[in-house]
Fold this protein.
Amino acid sequence: MSLEFFLFLLFVALGSWGAPPQAPPVPPPPPTPPTTVPQLPPKVSRHFTVKDYFVFVIVVDGLRPDALQRAQTPNLDRLWQSGLYSWTAQTVMPSTTLPAIASLLSGVPPERHHILWNHWAPELGRITVPTIFEIAQSQKISTVAFVSKRKLEHLFSPETPLFVLNSDARHLIVEAIEYISEHRPRLVFLHLSDVDDAGHRYGWMTIRQLQAVARVDEALGLLLHNLEDLNILNNSVIIVTADHGGHGRIHGTDDPRDMTIPWILWTPDIEIGRELMQPIRIYDTAATVLAALGLVIPSDWLGVPVLEAFPEATLQTLQKHY
C-alpha cells in the first residue's frame, strides 16, 4: 500500500468520527384549530299524540309479583290477562316508598330527585324536580291523588288536590270514587298501603299478607265497576304497580325480592294480554303517563314510555338543545 493511499484512508476515518449526529426529524405543525366549536346534537323531547284518556296510576305498596300467583286476585287477573304486564319490573335503590314513588312520578332515579329519606319530615320540603302532576297541571289537565301515608305529601305540590287517608284500601277507594264521579279528573293517583302494612307485621308472602292482597283486589274491583258505570273505564289507561317488594318483614335492600315489582297496564284497545319484552323500570311509569295524556316527555328523563299500549300513537318531536 502506498503512503498516499494510507493517508487518504486515515483522513476519511477521522472525518467520520467527528461528524455531528443527524438531527431528529421535525414534527409537523399542529393542525389549526377550527374557528367555530362543533355543535352537540340536539336532545329530543318526545311527544305522542293519542286520544284523550283518563289515566289511573295505582300503587299497591309492597306488592311482589309472586303474590299475584298465590293470592285470590280476580280483578287484577282481569287487567293483566287483557293488558300488558311485566313480572320483572324493577324499582330503585333504596327500595323504599318515598324514593321509589318519587321516581315513579318524576321519571328520574333518586340521585336526580334527591328524595332519599322515607319518613314524614316537613323541614325537608317537597320534591324539587317536575312530576307528572305538575306537568299535567301546567297544561290545564285536572288531577287528584289519594294516598294512605302522610309522608307522600313530600311528592305533591300544594296545587295538587291531595287526600291523605289513614285507612284501608276499600275506604280509600270509596272516597276516590265519590271524588271522581263529581270532578272527573283526567289523572288519578291511588296509593294503597294494606299489603305493605301486613308485610311488616306478619312477613312477606305469609297467609296474612296474601289475604291483604285479596282485600286490595276486592277494592280495585269496586273501582273498576264504578268506572264502568261512569262511562270512564272504556276511555281509560290503568297502570297498577308497586313501589317495592319485601322479604321477611323488611325491604329497602337490593335483594331481588325487594327490587322486583309487578307492572300492569290496561287499556280497552288491548285485546289479548301479553308480557312486555322491554325491561321496565319504575320511572318508565311517568313517561308512559305523559304519553297517554299526549304531553311532552322531558328530554332529560330516563323513563321510557311503553308505546305498545298505544298502537295509534303518533310521534312528534320537539327539539331541545343541551
